[in-house]
Amino acid sequence: MFTSVSGTWTQPALNCSGGSLASAYWVGLDGDTFDVPTSTTVEQIGTEADCIGRNTSDYAWYSLYPGGPNANLSPSAYPVAAGDTISASVVESKGPGGAQEFTLTISDDGTGNGTSWNYESPTISPSSPVQLASAEWIAEAPSFCTPARCRTLSLADFGAVTFSNASATAVSTTTTTIDSISSSSWRHDPITMVTPSATASPGPLLSSGYSFTVTYASVSGHGHSHH
Amino acid sequence: MRARMMTSAFALGFAVVGLAIGPATATAIVHGAGVPAASGLLSHTSTSTNWSGYAV
After folding, report:
1. Cα angle for residues A30, A33, A39 (degrees, 5° grid)
2. Which residue of A lies nearest to B42 if distances are taken between CA atoms?
3. Smaller CB count within 10 Å for chain A: N or C?
């Protein structure tokens, strides 16, 4: 099982040409419902970059889904801007009685806006045990959900985002492995986002599996504006 | 799941206005969960409608 995941990325500068568009960048555990269809949770931390018209909105967040907590970090206390180098991790540990606990951390070096900061979440106990079955490094179009339904938001044009220092920890009864995405200790799967209007494709693993770049591409003939 | 107060442009563009400023779980931005849509499991080169990257 995976007990930690970490990674670094540069908050991208969006090309906001109008409309409400969204993007998110995060590391997490248990989010791979493709290969682990029984997983119903995700423990994750990252940043968001949204287009609101021609303006951008950047902030950091973390979540244990679905039991919570979920939190947006105050942009005034923890400002995020394009060009900032973001490093984040999710770490599972054992609390009293061996119960699962999570600590989520994120830092911003302030390259883009001159303000550096570090944030560590309170120790979080999930409402029920989670599987720790996968680790992931993700760029995505988040979804907006009401109690009745979810809708995937249109993906903002982020150009490209590079993940680096991507590592995970896996433990068994006999060994602990800390390694990159391409470790021989586990199988890795690239995931490409494909929608009628845009794609986001992960490139090859570089730097011994510690780095890759996800590239946005619009699909010809489809606009992004929502009205 | 993480919640967003319904004061953003998304509230206008994507949501039901009547749910504005609800409890944290009433409306939310969700990352990587609750939105199934993938194919290509056999090839281990998956495609998705909402996310990209690498999983191990």
Report:
1. 55
2. A35
3. C
